[in-house]
Amino acid sequence: MFLQGPRGQGGGCCSWIFLALCRLLSTFSQYTGSLPRQSWLGVGMIKRFLYMLYVSAVFQLPLAQGVVGQSLRELVSDLFTFGSCGEVLCLDLVDGHGDHYSPNRVAQNGSMLFFFEDGFSNMLGTVPAPAMGGDLIGYEDENGDLVPTSFGPIFAERAETLGAGRFFVGLQTSAFSVSNFNGAPIDRMLFNFAHVNSHPLSAVDDPALAGRRLDERDIFQVRTALDLNVVMATTVLTAGLTSFMDIGVAIPVVRTRLKGTSNAQILALDPAYQHRFGGTPTDPAMHSSSSVNGTATGIGDVSARLKINLVGGTTRNQSPSTVGAAFMADVLLPTGDADEFLGLGAGMVRALAIVSGRWEGISPHLNVGYLLRQGDGRPDAFLGTIGLDAHVNDHMTFALDLISQWEHDVPKYAHPGQISLPRERAATFYDPQIMIEPSSIPGLSNPKSRRALDMAVGLKFRIGSDMLLVTNALVPVRNVGLRPDMMWTLALQSAFR
To answer: What residues have CB less than 8 Å from 429, skipping those under 6 apart?
Structure first.
């Protein structure tokens, strides 16, 4: 049966944060406005940082509203609830057969529903994290003049750090509509659920059938059509503690909207016993339907990050090295409500080895690491990102990345196997079998096949002395789990001292 938990709570506190930032920025601006121009250098960094936080609040406030009513997890469960019984896969029968398709009675049915739910719970796990910062506009030569370079990648990491006393603020919005589940379209999915197996018959029941099972082979079939949309507004804040060390935090606000319909029917493989949703034996109800519609919005899973440069120096105040190396680690906190599909419901730790270089306007990079997941749901994964960013001109950079995530084990709630039914209602275990696929969703139960691969293509535009406008399209090359056809990203980035 689907797992159900408490409904998520809203992000109403964001409005208070927004008002506080407005007041703080106004007060600080009044104070600094009375200072002589030569004093601005000492307070300019603080003022700009407050301004970017203010923009971040404006950026995320429209999303940060509370949730009302049923959780999205409960709505998914409702897609498989019909009639008035109020239970998943339940029939409105009064003769004791109403719960014979229940996940509590049929392990195969429970595995199928768990697998389906697990896809929603881990939907956000394959969305790549935004870059921590690193290189932005260029470097200062020996005369103090800015020499433009490539503006850096969008999702990958470069070896360079910000440098002591410098800050990075990124405001990023990503939006996508989920289109498939393991490659199968989510607007036309099919599920088959089997009846509970009956006990073997005895000679008292019928001497001719002793030792056989009385299998009720009717199939509970559900066709679903889903419309699932996600918007993520993420604020990335990074500070250069030393010339070789950066710390940062990424704070997402997520909005998830789910609409869906389901149509169920009983496939009577044997008229000896007829299951139905209601009605009477002479006038049975063999079809039923359900529909859901809900939206949830709130804080997502916050991550804290650390990057240490090993070779290659910082972004500013020195010409970039031909080759650089760094180490990065981040911790994902389960702050998002998993019942509302705003977070994963479990923490994660990511460790990355970073290598990057620069050759005549082309800056390749390679990130290799490991993702350690908390809990026993989805397995750990190897991470790999390879790509480049190219200096097109002083105002534009082209970025390209291949992003992979390879799970090295089968998830706890893996796709179940085929449903096996005897060809006759009263049959031995050795009679020829009818094999039925449990769903239209490919299983991908082989660990070697659980490898997500995405391609990201984007542009960075310089719109000020130290500010960038970023646009990017991410296209899944290989689908694992609930995935979109394309994810669009728009971001504003700035680094300053």
So the answer is: 213
List phi, psi (to 5°) of 204: -65, -40
> What is the C-alpha to C-alpha distance for residues 148 and 134, in angstroms, rounded to an integer?
14
CA atoms within 13 A on the CB side of 46: 13
> CB-side exposure of 256: number of CA atoms within 13 Å?
28
pLDDT for residue 9: 39
Phi, psi of 427 (to 5 degrees): -140, 155
Judge whether 485 and 179 are in contact, CB under 8 Å.
yes
Sequence letter at residue 248: G
Q: pLDDT per residue over 410-435, tens digit each?
A: 776 677 888 877 777 666 655 667 88
Beta-carbon contacts of residue 316 (< 8 Å; ≥ 6 apart): 139, 140, 162, 163, 166
Chain-centre distance for alpha carbon 60: 18
Q: How distant is the alpha carbon of residue 87 from its chain centre?
A: 28
Region of 183 (left: φ > 0; alpha: ψ -120 to 50; beta: rest) is left
Of the candidate ranges 58-62, 285-289, 295-299, 377-381, the one whose mean pLDDT is the lowest: 58-62
Burial of 13 (0-12, 13-18, 19+ CB in 10 A): exposed
247, 238 Cβ separation under 8 angstroms = yes
- Lookup: tokens for 46: 């603080």
Asked if the model's pLDDT at residue 289 lies above 80, the reply is: yes
Task: Identify residue 271 by its one-letter amino acid code.
Answer: P
How many residues appear in the chain?
Answer: 497
Tens-place pLDDT, residues 40-76: 344 455 545 545 554 555 555 455 444 456 899 999 9
- Which tokens go with 148? 């433009």
pLDDT digits (tens, 9 = 90+) for 149-205: 788 888 999 988 888 888 899 999 999 999 999 889 999 999 999 887 655 555 455
Main-chain phi, psi angles of 217, to 5 degrees: -90, 5
Q: Can you read off the two tokens belonging to residue 227?
A: 């419309």
> Average pLDDT in the 448-476 region?
87
Count other Cβ atoms within 10 Å, centred on residue 148: 14
Classify strands 245-267 and 284-285 as parallel, antiparallel or unpaired. Answer: unpaired
